[in-house]
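Quick illustration for those who missed Monday's session on complexes.
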Amino acid sequence: MRQSELYVRYARLADAAAISAITAEYARQGIMLERSDENIVENIRNFFVAEYCGEVIGCCAIAFYTLKLAEIRSLAVFNRYKMKGIGRLLVEKAESVLREEGVSEVFVLTLSSTFFRRLGYNDIQKEYFPQKIWRDCTHCPKLMACDEIAMVKTLSSI
Ligand SMILES: CC(C)(COP(=O)(O)OP(=O)(O)OC[C@H]1O[C@@H](n2cnc3c(N)ncnc32)[C@H](O)[C@@H]1OP(=O)(O)O)[C@@H](O)C(=O)NCCC(=O)NCCS
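Prediction with coenzyme A bound:
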């Protein structure tokens, strides 16, 4: 990949269809929660995208819970671009924005624990985040059989 053609930026409304395409494939495989097009559009300001040669090839979103706690979610990279450092770039961008906002703790619920461990996240009990359980998990079809791992990272101030 030509690094000069790759960058991560805030998503724009026009990126909604690309975000939907990237996440829908993994949702079909049961790897991620499905997000409707309406939900993506509603939350577009919380999304970041990775763009390569003018094409959106990855995305992630942030969700705020308290002044100090946030979640990184909807992280996905198109299959053919995996293992090239793009997931890392997306997470680092999200973390840097969260730091600027004064957030000190970020969590993820994921099936990709090896990836997040590489980025400094540690396993934690899901029950540590009751806000998450109330906001999303109660609406999830997998609720009683959740196979996702909760992981957390402390964001050091710059
Ligand atoms: C998880 C995902 C976003 C990772 O993106 P990626 O661009 O392939 O990851 P990167 O290339 O940035 O990898 C960063 C590090 O994690 C490691 N890594 C990435 N995926 C890995 C995997 N499946 N198994 C083991 N290590 C992995 C890389 O080797 C790299 O290690 P390094 O720092 O030693 O070089 C991508 O695999 C994906 O889209 N998965 C499907 C959706 C998903 O599971 N999303 C998470 C929901 S929260």
